[in-house]
Amino acid sequence: MTLELPRPAERALRVFRVDFAPVHRQPSAASVLGATAAAVAGSLGIDALLVVIGQAVFPSTRGYAHFQFSDYSKLTVIGVVIACVAWPIVTRISSDPRWLFLRMAVAVTLVLWLPDVYILVLGQPAKAVAVLFAMHLAIAVVTYNCLVRLAAPPRRARDLAATGPSVTDIELP
Fold it and tell me: pTM for the complete prediction?
């Protein structure tokens, strides 16, 4: 028995390249865990660097509550882990997971900027909020790249034979 979806739902799934027919194998659990560790470490590192840079460029932001490691680290880790859980799901439901995951990362980043806009409207310092915006963007870039590069779905041998190797399939000496 095949489940028939309404036409608008089918169109939406096609637009977002959700086809439930990936041509690749799933990334290994080890590669996803490694990418997760790298994404968490990289995101926390870039956050800390952006805080240092932000406070150097905007001295008035020194001591800003949201620049405390204990404040941003919890939220960073939670967000990165959620993205890392989503990646294997995306690789399972799409034959073009990088395309879909990039758009998801952009959408999530825009949504995560909403609280920054809210605290800006409430009167938080614009320079400090600008650093928060940069932190959210940097986390998205780091996490996306760790996942799609370190936990890339391996291509099947028969697919390589049909399409030829891609640049990422070529081994260097």
Answer: 0.83
Output the pLDDT for position 170: 44
- As a whole number, mean pLDDT of residues 130-143 equals 98
Spatial CB neighbours of 22, under 8 Å, sequence gap ≥ 6: 91, 92, 93, 94, 95, 97, 153
94 is written with which tokens? 């799409």
% of the chain beyond a pLDDT of 70: 86
φ/ψ (deg, to 5) at 107: -60, -45
How would you write 75-106 as a 3-class SS string? HHHHHHHHHHHHHHHHHHHCCCHHHHHHHHHH
**Where in the chain are the domains?**
26-153
In this structure, the number of other CB atoms found within 10 A of the CB of residue 88 comes to 19
- Token digits of residue 136: 């959210």
Given the structure tokens 């996490």, which residue do they identify? 143
